Amino acid sequence: MKKKLKVAVLADVSRAYDRDMLAGVTHFNKIHDKFIFFPFTPKYIQHNDQAALIERVIAWKPDGVITREIDGFEKLLDLDVPLIIAPHTTLYKNKINLWGHNCVIGNVAAEYFISKGFRNYAFFGFKNFQWSSEREAAFVNRVNEAGYSVQSHIFDSKASLWEHLSAKLTAWLPLLEKPCAVFSVADDLNIHLLAAAKELDVKVPDELSVLGVDNDVLICEMANPTLSSIEHHVHQSGFEAAMALSRWMEYGEKPAGDIIVGGATVITRNSTSGLAIDDEQTRNALHYIATTASSKDISVEDVVNVTTLSRRGLEKRFQQVIKSSILDEIRKVRIRRIKFLLENSDLTIQQIAVDMNFNNSDNITRYFRQHVGLTPRDYRNQFR
Fold it and tell me: What are phi and psi of 213, to 5 degrees?
């Protein structure tokens, strides 16, 4: 029997990001059965600070390490073993980093809000965190390209306590023109944002449309209203990190570069259910598309019929208000729904076709490949 590799995975399991990463690592090991993991002692049995934990890991003599920037982790960098670091702050030169595709996340957030017709935008992030700055830059650039500006609020964790954040937000929120689309770089921040909005009687989503990142279900589903969030497929990156570490330990094949978390999907909940559009005809048309196109193969004429405008008149309004066509908006909703079902369900392609009112699986395959560049089956396999 081949000797198994000793791997220490040091993460913050209180956060959805780290739990998803761990799930990806353990998923790899369930398939390949190559690792034994560092045996953590539950805190209720034996409490240890992080510095002591690092010494225990070193004494265990791991073959490889995947770690966060916990206290004392610098000692692990000096070990002569393959190591992948998932930084909280900034990328580490000459190391293999597990890092988010933050430009994609910022762009996805901007596109999501632009498609809803917002004119006022805000960003809520962290100071001294590179991933936050990257998301902000991408979000601001895309919003600027659309002809709008962004008001930012940056929380400095070194200068202010976490529990004081809500009070700071009560001073910032009145400065924002409403309705306003707010992109927060992490779900954790939106707990404070909702508290401040409630104190000021600012309505979410009618006056503030709030979108976070990580899709931490515990935070998002317990909030009132429930919070929309960007799911960025960390499970897959954990799987890829484990695979890269395995090859590095077994064959000395160091990864050629950083491991980047790919993809970004908006999981829509109540905090972004409003449409920030002054024009009533366009708002009615978009509401019809949003509530109908995911389950019915609607046409442009179907959308026109819920307004009092001609097809040409409504198309003109769409181009003026959201810089898109009626057909493009229908496609966006249907493609988004197909992706969601492929990623989050075990429904067959035929069952998804029936659910979305396609005639057959050939039609949905042709439609999806035309707009995504992959067949539904290939997309699902790539995602998983």
Answer: -140, 145
- Please, which residues have CB within 8 angstroms of residue 208's CB and are 6 or more apart in sequence? 173, 176, 178, 179, 180, 182, 193, 197, 202
CATH number at residue 245: 3.40.50.2300
> What does the pLDDT look like over 276-310, one tens digit per residue?
666 778 878 887 887 788 889 999 999 999 999 99
Q: Which tokens go with 382?
A: 């790539």
Task: State mean pLDDT over 153-165.
Answer: 92
**Mean pLDDT of all residues belonging to the chain:** 90
Q: Residue 212 is encoded by which pair of tokens?
A: 């976070």
| Buried-state track 53-74, b at ≥16 Cβ within 10 A, e below 16 | bbeebbeeebbbbbbbebeebe
Determine the structural domain holding residue 348 and report its residue range: 280-383
Same domain, 204 and 348: no
3-state secondary structure of 357: coil
- Determine the Cα–Cα distance for residues 78 and 29; give it in Å rounded to an integer: 26
DSSP string computed for 305-342: TTSSS-HHHHHHHHHHHTSS-HHHHHHHHHHHHHHHHH
- State pLDDT tens for residues 204-234: 887 899 999 999 988 998 898 889 999 988 9
